[in-house]
Design goal:
The complex is a heterodimer of chains A (563) and B (270).
Chain A (H helix, E strand, L loop, with lengths): L1 E11 L4 E11 L2 E3 L7 E5 L4 E4 L1 E3 L7 H9 L1 H5 L2 E2 L8 E2 L6 H10 L2 E9 L4 H9 L5 E6 L5 H9 L2 H14 L6 E3 L3 H5 L19 H14 L6 E4 L9 H10 L11 E3 L7 E2 L7 E2 L1 H10 L3 E4 L7 E6 L2 H11 L4 E5 L3 E9 L5 H16 L6 E2 L13 H9 L1 H8 L4 H6 L11 H16 L15 E4 L12 H9 L3 E4 L2 E5 L2 E2 L7 E7 L8 H10 L17 E7 L3
Helix pairs in contact in A: 5-6, 5-8, 6-8, 10-12, 13-14, 13-17
Chain B lengths: L1 E5 L7 E2 L5 H4 L4 H5 L2 E4 L2 E4 L4 E5 L7 E4 L5 E2 L9 E5 L11 E7 L13 E6 L22 E4 L15 E4 L15 E4 L15 E4 L11 E12 L2 E12 L7 E6 L14
The chains are: A alpha/beta (563), B mainly beta (270).
Chain lengths: 563, 270
């Protein structure tokens, strides 16, 4: 049946609609111009806010590292468990929810599309099996390619075309969506117990530098016409004084031709914006980073906002996780994934009364508020690294209301309060800006044409919130705003009403989006490479690819490459 | 005072964290009758399981007459009052309690006094595994309060213990005080293997025989007596070991010299 959402306040930044009272018509799973009213199911959205379905550009929800995280943290599940209902399945939270719970909780907040940002290619099958099990959401995943030997070898040779072909092959066989680079060079060095400390450090055995890898893969990204930019986790992440490395990184990518579009997405920027010489003199480098991004168009980023809670950090950045282990002394996991990447997991409790954590909290918000253009900076927590995604409404309240920010600010460690520039920032995001940082901007950065907006032809993903923008001033009544964004009035995905007033009405399967790469020349994997597989991988070449039948709801996007 | 008498047995575990003086306080008998509990995966009310009577006396707040070894989470998070169990008590007895007193005239199952923050837990019989320890994986150990066990204790007691006191009149199982960072444990009889593994602070006193000594502990000196709490001293002499050195720990083990002649070889390092 057709669906008509009547008379809501619509926020659709991609189409420039800012709070107009409009009707949204849905036929099958697409948004259409109009439907016949008497034949449709009508949702009365009078006095409600209508947003496109949420898009999350960076959230670790599936894969080997997430699953290992679940194994490591039984105490995390003990404090948060969900019973089954007639519609939903049982599950556990809190920082690393089980697959079904992940889907339900995202859906209750109005999210419909999420991106799983780090998948070791060797673990691609596992990742896709888990993605298959996450209901309610459309998903995609980025393979980790920054430290893959074939990339390093071809960049060392200077043959970017060959590199591009390997990357295209890898994206297709792992059913990935974008090139993820984590601590380029650092992970390869970590295999030898070392790390890189600037973008010009040499990588052992390859003789190239992180700069070569980032520039090389950014060019490859252009050659392949990939929808997203390179998705970068910078070098020196989580080290005081690393904002200089981040600035160097952004400067080194200036030379890539961009036509005013971004060429790099720097993810969880908060962790890359630390100033100071050590943890004692730790302070925020957000002003410098934001200043640079305000003056340049080739960078987009997301926040990686800290939430004061007990969470689990997990990243492919093995050396960083080792540093965290030394700081916290908590139980930990660290691994080296053959020729591709590394990984680490460690539980971490961010505390208000810890000056470093408190400053980190401030950095994330400073970045989001000081970067003037909301299309360049998106809201994430790098779930679950800086906090679970269920805390998004809290962050939105901090962004939209100075009052909310200051209420939390007053409870921070005194030293952090003195160092922070947050009280001097008066900017408050409007609902229109919120729609950009949570949906439109992310969909645009990912180049997902049918997501993040409500124009004709878009996927019928809609989130309706119980908030009357004419009556509620979100900057003042931030608690009302936060409550409204915690549970939607309606979550509609693919034309189906999935959730209503904080309750799941039905369970729906989501698509897995991946890139079907069409290169000019057929990609040939030489006998030499196959031999390498036999020598260096634990998985044979023949068993390596994820074939399409692995994916429950496959949704390939055809990409014509220039190589 | 509320008197609870179990009226039936079930084959499923029962979760009844409502049995606590804080919850019963200022409730009428009818309200108490209707407090929710879980029997297996079914939601039931308290009066399905217990005969509940109310008397005018004030202390103790709750008496349970009968075996409640299936009933978990008695005294969950209690802050005041007193519970007396005349029988055996189930798992998670007095979990997260921060005040008041629980007396068990029988045995207690696993995780008694888990994540305890204050108050007194006295078990006249034996205690199960994980006495005063957090849930698996958690690092929130016992933070304050006192546990007295008149019988024996199972394995993994006082894991991650931070402060407080545990007195055991009987024997203890393996992995006592694993990763403890503070607090005092006194075992009046024998202690199991891996005592104080990975400990970084606090002290464990063994007045009986120690099954074996971890190699990551080093002997410091011999001491005549050691203070357990105000007005309670354990009389030695004791070998004093420092460790766990694998964790750069400064925890102390006091092991009775008289009962442990096998440790006399350590004396040459003094």
């Amino acid at each position: 049946m057709d669906l008509l959402i009547k008379n809501g306040f619509v926020y659709d930044p991609i189409n420039g609609i800012n709070g107009e009272r409009m009707d949204i018509a849905i036929r099958n799973n697409k948004i259409v111009e109009s439907v016949i009213e008497k034949n449709s199911k009508i949702i009365d959205a009078t006095g409600l806010t209508v947003f496109p379905g949420g898009v999350d550009i960076h959230t670790h929800i599936a894969g080997s590292e997430v699953n290992t995280g679940r194994l490591v943290r039984p105490e995390d599940h003990e404090k948060d468990f969900v019973r089954k209902t007639s519609v939903t399945r049982s599950g556990v939270g809190y920082s690393i929810p089980s697959t079904f719970t992940t889907g339900y909780r995202y859906s209750l907040m109005g999210y419909t599309t999420v991106m799983n940002p780090s998948m070791a290619a060797l673990e691609a099958k596992h990742t896709h099996e888990e993605l298959n099990d996450i209901p309610m959401l459309d998903k995609a995943t980025y393979p980790l390619l920054g430290d893959w030997w074939l990339v390093l070898e071809t960049i060392q040779k200077g043959d970017l075309e060959e590199c591009a072909r390997y990357v295209a092959w890898m994206l297709e066989i792992t059913k990935g969506y974008a090139i993820k680079i984590v601590n380029p060079g650092g992970l390869e060095s970590w295999g030898f117990g070392r790390n890189v400390h600037s973008i010009d450090d040499q990588i052992p055995n390859f003789g190239i530098t992180p700069r070569d890898i980032m520039c090389g893969l950014a060019k490859v990204n252009k050659m392949l016409n990939l929808p997203h930019t390179i998705h970068l986790h910078t070098n020196n992440l989580g080290v005081p004084g690393n904002y200089e490395t981040t600035l160097d990184t952004m400067k080194c990518l200036e030379s890539i031709p961009s036509n005013g579009k971004p060429v790099v997405h720097i993810t969880h920027l908060q962790f890359s914006s630390f100033a100071g010489e050590d943890w004692g003199s730790f302070r925020s480098g957000a002003a410098e980073i934001a200043g640079y991004i305000n003056n340049h168009d080739h960078v987009s980023c997301d926040m990686g906002q800290i939430i004061f809670t007990d969470t689990t950090t997990m990243t492919a950045d093995g050396p960083f996780e080792y540093t965290l282990y030394q700081l916290s002394g908590h139980k930990w996991v660290n691994s080296d994934v053959e020729t591709e990447t590394s990984g680490g997991i460690i539980p971490f409790h961010y505390k208000r009364k810890n000056p470093v954590n408190a400053i980190q909290w401030s950095i994330g918000l400073e970045l989001a508020l000081l970067i003037k253009n909301p299309w360049k900076v998106f809201m994430t927590t790098d779930h679950p690294n800086a906090g679970p995604f269920t805390a998004y409404p809290k962050i939105l309240a901090w962004l939209a209301s100075k009052k909310a920010r200051m209420a939390t600010f007053k409870r921070l460690h005194k030293k952090a309060q003195k160092k922070s520039i947050l009280p001097s920032i008066d900017r408050e995001l409007s609902l229109y800006d919120i729609a950009i940082v949570t949906r439109a901007g992310q969909a645009k950065a990912l180049n997902l044409k049918e997501k993040g907006h409500l124009g004709v032809g878009a996927d019928a993903d809609v989130a309706i919130f119980d908030l009357n923008p004419e009556k509620v001033d979100i900057a003042n009544k931030f608690r009302t705003f936060r409550r409204a964004f915690t549970n939607t009035a309606y979550t509609i995905k693919g034309g189906k009403i999935l959730a209503k007033d904080g309750e799941i009405l039905q369970q729906a399967e989501g698509k897995t989006i991946w890139l079907d790469m069409q290169t000019k020349k057929e990609i040939e994997i030489s006998e030499e490479i196959k031999k390498k597989f036999r020598e260096y991988w634990t998985v044979e070449y023949e068993n390596y690819p994820v074939s399409e039948h692995y994916i429950k709801n496959s949704s390939p996007i055809k990409i014509k490459a220039d190589v | 005072m509320i008197i609870l008498t179990p009226i039936k047995k079930t084959q499923y575990p029962i979760i009844a964290q409502c049995i606590s003086p804080d919850v019963f306080q200022e409730k009428t008998l009818e309200q108490i009758n209707n407090l929710p509990i879980w029997i297996g995966n079914k939601r039931r009310i308290l009066s399905d399981l217990f005969k509940i009577e109310k008397t005018t006396e004030n202390s103790p707040s709750i008496i349970i007459n009968g075996d409640v070894s299936q009933v978990r989470r008695i005294g969950w998070g209690m802050t005041q009052g007193e519970i007396v169990v005349n029988g055996n008590a189930g798992m998670h007895l007095g979990k997260k309690m921060s005040g008041g007193k629980i007396v068990v005239n029988g045995n207690a199952e696993g995780w008694a006094g888990s994540e305890m923050k204050g108050g007194l837990l006295e078990i006249k019989g034996d205690a199960g595994d994980y006495l005063g320890s957090p849930y698996r994986g958690s690092t929130i150990g016992m933070r304050k309060g006192k546990i007295v066990v008149h019988g024996n204790v199972g394995s993994d007691a006082a894991v991650h213990m931070k402060s407080g006191l545990i007195k055991i009149h009987g024997n203890s199982g393996p992995f006592m005080g694993f990763r403890m960072t503070g607090g005092v444990i006194h075992i009046q009889k024998d202690a199991g293997t891996r005592l104080g593994a990975c400990m970084t602070g606090g002290k464990i006193v063994v007045s009986g025989v120690l099954e074996d000594m971890l190699p990551t502990f080093a002997i410091e000196f011999i001491k005549g007596k050691v203070k357990i709490e105000l007005g309670d001293k354990a009389i030695g002499p004791f070998f004093v070991f420092l460790g766990d050195l694998a964790e750069n720990g400064r925890g102390k083990l006091f092991i009775s010299k008289e009962k442990n002649p096998q440790l006399s070889q350590y004396e040459r390092f003094l």
